[in-house]
Amino acid sequence: MARRPEEFTRAFSPERMMLSDISEVVALEQSVSPTPWSKTIFTDCLKAGYECWVLRSPEVFGYLIFASAAQESHLLNIAIHPDSQGRGFGSSFLEFAISLAAKEGADRLFLEVRPSNSSARALYQKKDFRFLGRRPNYYGRPAKEDALVLSLEFKPD
Q1: Residues near 90 by Cβ (< 8 Å), separated by ≥ 6?
Q2: Do residues 100 and 81 lie in contact, with contact meaning Cβ atoms separated by under 8 Å?
Q3: Strand bridging mode 72-80 / 15-16
Q4: Taking burial as the number of CB atoms within 10 A of a residue's CB, which of 10, 33, 74, 134 is the most buried?
């Protein structure tokens, strides 16, 4: 199955994730995460009304999920298929999430990232996320690893 989009010249157009996308999203999650989320977790995120979005061409090659409450948003998960990484999709998708969170009235966007995930950390740094702290032993597999807690504060208009 071809996962690499043919071109990035078309408008960047995320689509709302549907229940029918879950199998593809789970397969993508298993290809990128050492501790992949289950089908149940993704389904629960949809049912809870979280912001759940996908990129497809024609198969799902990216997804993101975030939740908002009390003027804060939390990026729970974002991924781009390995065959499509390094082409700007992650950066554009993250910008999309930031824009949505701001439109929903969030003052800041939080996330956790593995210290060992250097490519994600570089992307977040490029987007001006700031280090807030560590969550000790947050990740359990393949080895215990802290989570770095990052935050992006939105500037008032």
Answers
A1: 62, 78, 80, 123
A2: no
A3: unpaired
A4: 74
| Cβ count near 28 (within 10 Å) | 24
Q: What global pTM score does this model have?
A: 0.88
Residue with tokens 């390094």: 86
Strand ranges in the chain using DSSP code E only, listed in sequence order: 15-16, 51-56, 60-69, 72-80, 108-113, 130-139, 145-153
The β-bridge relationship of strands 130-139 and 145-153 is antiparallel
Pairing of strands 60-69, 51-56: antiparallel
d(CA 87, CA 92): 10
The backbone torsions φ and ψ at residue 16, rounded to the nearest 5 degrees and listed phi first, read: -60, 135
| pLDDT tens digits along 20-73 | 999 999 999 999 998 899 999 999 999 999 999 999 988 999 999 999 998 999
Are 152 and 129 in contact, with CB atoms under 8 Å apart?
A: yes
